[in-house]
Prior knowledge:
It is built from 15 helices and 13 strands.
Amino acid sequence: MRLKVLQILEATGGGTARHVVDLCHGLVLRGVEVHLAYSPLRMDNILAQALPELEKAGVRCLEVPMRRAPHPSDFIAVFALYRYLRSHGPFTHIHGHSSKAGALARILGLFGGPKVIYTPHAFYTHSLGVGKNLRWIYGIIERALSFSTDALIAVSDYEAKEAFRLGYSRIKTVRIPNGVSLNVESAEEKQQIRRKWNLECDAIVIGFVGRLTSQKSPHVLLEAFSRVTTQHPKALLVMIGDGPLKSWLREKVLELGIENRVVWQGFIDGRWAMRGFDIFALPSEYEGFPYVLLEAMAEGLPIVATCVGGADQAIVDGENGFVVPVGDVIAFAGALDRLLSDEALRLSMGAQSRLRVKEFSVEKMVDATLALYRELAGR
Length: 379
């Protein structure tokens, strides 16, 4: 029986987009017929650049406008997806990624037919910025939709625990960590990249890669960095990414008096940029299992990260980096200080990162997902 899967993606940016792109490529190579329904409304370069390659590989792509928050247009999206299922089916599986696409996939599952898989890529209920009432509403929605979910893929233990709290059964919940390519070639080395950024060769570079949003908490990193600049005059902070907080963060840099120590590079290839870093910093408020964490490990970087989804699986505290409490500026600054003060520690932790990341390859991720598809198809 040949598997035929409809992947649905509303969150067409960042790590979720990268996950779906890698998954689609890997499934096609393994003989699965893959269709991808994606939304153009908040799509970044990761998916935009990947779409032609996906279609060339044999993935059939369908543009379906979907909004992030609940909206009356959701009915139009459901109808478009249902019509596509009917005209291009039968499908064996529907796989929804993140909350909106996951909800639409489960609604489609109510009509019967394909098995329904949901990968949250970080539950919205993890956010500290969500009020008690809104968190309760989202929790009720998740519990209701869990009944039409054949399997939930948790990309980290952190995410699995939240799934259990929201009412998903342990039988339906499967842990499949994110995975990255371990062999990305680049002709450019650290000093070449730094020259493009006009940085001194002997600078010690702390790097951030991510969207400039409240979820990523970049202000925590800025405040922590401001606490170590005096004792480490060669330390610089490079910020890779863009987002709605950009103007506010630039003002904050001025308030902290570190405008000459922070370099803004906007949206560029994060994996390439990491080759110019000495330390990787992830100050997020919540995550599923961030790709940038794995990519930094693959590039041999020591890491300072908050204790969010997957961080404690990827990082052995004190071995290949440091894990600190969410929002703890003082602890974050202390960890940065230790790495900035000790080059030998940076190098040894970076070497450990390269070893540990081998557990999180994209091949393992795709194989585990395909095994789940086959198990569900055989039920």
